[in-house]
Amino acid sequence: MNMQTALRSVPPTSPMVRGAARLEASDSCQQIALPSFAAVESAMPWTARRLRRGAYLYRAGMPSTALYVVRFGCLKSSLAADDGDERVLDFPMRGDLLGADALAGQPCATDVQALEDSEVLVLPVSDFESACSRTPGLRQDLYRHFGTTLRKEREHLMRLGGMRAGQRLARFLLELSDRFAAFGYSPRVFNLRMSRAEIGSYLGLTLESVSRLFSRLKDDGLIRVDLRKIELLEVAALRAIAAGHELPHEVASGAVA
Amino acid sequence: MNMQTALRSVPPTSPMVRGAARLEASDSCQQIALPSFAAVESAMPWTARRLRRGAYLYRAGMPSTALYVVRFGCLKSSLAADDGDERVLDFPMRGDLLGADALAGQPCATDVQALEDSEVLVLPVSDFESACSRTPGLRQDLYRHFGTTLRKEREHLMRLGGMRAGQRLARFLLELSDRFAAFGYSPRVFNLRMSRAEIGSYLGLTLESVSRLFSRLKDDGLIRVDLRKIELLEVAALRAIAAGHELPHEVASGAVA
DNA sequence: CGCGGTATTGAATCAAGTCAAACTTCGTGG
DNA sequence: CCACGAAGTTTGACTTGATTCAATACCGCG
């Protein structure tokens, strides 16, 4: 397909896009999804693949040939509903594992598109599977990955069913905050990589509702928001909203405690 | 339908509930989730466990020790939202695999309760894991299982986000119909095992809405419904609704066939 | 028989969606 | 570098689908 597009336009600094086995511990990308990955004894060939903003890693229906671990950037996995328009399922970021359908020998189930310039580690499925057969720890990691993925989906289900719009958005912001924090970035100030429409699709809301909710949070002094620049001002209050306490009513008029 | 094996209650003294390795092909329970399970060469100890209506297979937070495959019956997996009330995540039935958290060494993530008298196959996790290490096919099945589970969750996500209430219920009914059909039961006439409240929780609706929607479908002549007894009369029209075409307008007015 | 859990139905309310318009930002190419 | 058009965002007015509250009916069961 479009292998050429973003494939190996590798940084001039590192001539080695290919490697085998053990990555340095500092390469934290796989630490999260596959902690024991670095400990794999046998050679495990891998490739890096760069994606420009807007480029697709793969699309639904394509034969799946590899697993991917996000090294940096932010992507969007989505699926076209039968009524045509897309529904956003997740925003994979550093450390997230993608393309697990490959393990089941099934075609790609979703579209995955880069929201900003990103890079993923490519793990050919056959290599991975054979590594799995040799390495219980890797299997374990994989199970854990599936477990946490399912858990996240479940939580997402909770969000969509029976949760007010404000609650959903508050959760979304806090989740993003946590993820950025885990990367060592600021949990209070960050840039959204996705549009209002994409957030809305993810949360089961319209883009207008998302916009309105942002404005509301801003008016209430809980966040600062300018386009995609976000700053969380009252995390405690946000947590309260996320927990369902719609508003402790006139939260902190002056109390920044 | 419920084979005699079902009649073995579970007195601790009964040696008959234990077995090893290859189950008969007729024991279709694992065919669905784990096709190659029956082909496992080495001994794979298993136990059957019966659950009375209302009994819990496990509860969220409990240490997980085994995988389960439903042999017959209908269960409910749910999770208490932080606001207290429970959210139904799934209605596992024959062939469905439960408790995959065990593989990741994590505690049970959900509550699982029997909606009617049910039986599950118990597969101790250590045995299962060792069988996995020896049997690529079993691993493959497992991957496939995770793949389809994720796919189902995704579909469920689609339902909850951006889908009208009528659409959700229509989908729910058709999905049930398909599952029953796969079991060899009638896809047109069946009994709901769950209450309106549970359906509502599953679909992200209130029980009143569910009730109303049932009545509406009945009035429109698409289904016959009496409490939990369901008969699908106009499957095509239901599919149309499920697909988003709200109503092909005055469907078959007169055809109560 | 009457009781408790379950289901249906109605009326009023409200949250979120829809439609529409104005405005800002961003990227592209002149 | 600026201008332009496309895309993204905000905001308003209005509509509506679904919830909420509440009353009633029903089934199954002891």
Polypeptide structure, described:
Two copies of one chain form a homodimer. With 257 residues, the first copy, chain A, is an alpha+beta fold. The first copy, chain A, folds into two domains: 3-159, Jelly Rolls (Sandwich), CATH 2.60.120.10; 164-243, Winged helix-like DNA-binding domain superfamily/Winged helix DNA-binding domain (Arc Repressor Mutant, subunit A). In chain A, 36% of the residues lie in helices and 21% in strands. The first copy, chain A, is built from eight helices and twelve strands. Chain A has helices at residues 3-6, 29-33, 125-134, 136-160, 165-183, 196-203, 207-219, 235-243; strands at residues 19-20, 45-51, 56-58, 66-72, 75-80, 86-90, 97-98, 111-114, 118-124, 189-191, 223-226, 229-232. Chain A has a five-stranded antiparallel beta sheet. In chain A, helix 3 (125-134) packs across helix 4 (136-160), helix 5 crosses helix 8 and helix 6 (196-203) packs across helix 7. The radius of gyration of chain A is 20 Å and the shape is globular. Residues 1-17, 20-30 and 249-257 of chain A have low confidence and may be disordered. Chain A binds a DNA duplex (30 and 30 nucleotides) through residues 164-165, 195-197, 205-209, 211-212, 214-215, 227.
The fraction of residues in strands of chain A falls at 15-25%
CATH homologous superfamily of the largest domain in chain A - what is it? Jelly Rolls
The percent range for helix content of chain A is 25-40%
User: Sheet with the most strands of chain A?
Assistant: 5 strands, antiparallel
CATH 2nd-level architecture of the largest domain in chain A: Sandwich
Radius of gyration of chain A in whole Å, from Cα? 20 Å
How many beta-strand elements of chain A?
12
Question: How would you spell out the order of helices and strands of chain A?
Answer: HEHEEEEEEEEHHHEHHEEH
CATH topology heading of the largest domain in chain A:
Jelly Rolls
Shape of chain A: globular
Biggest contact: A-B, 42 and 42 residues
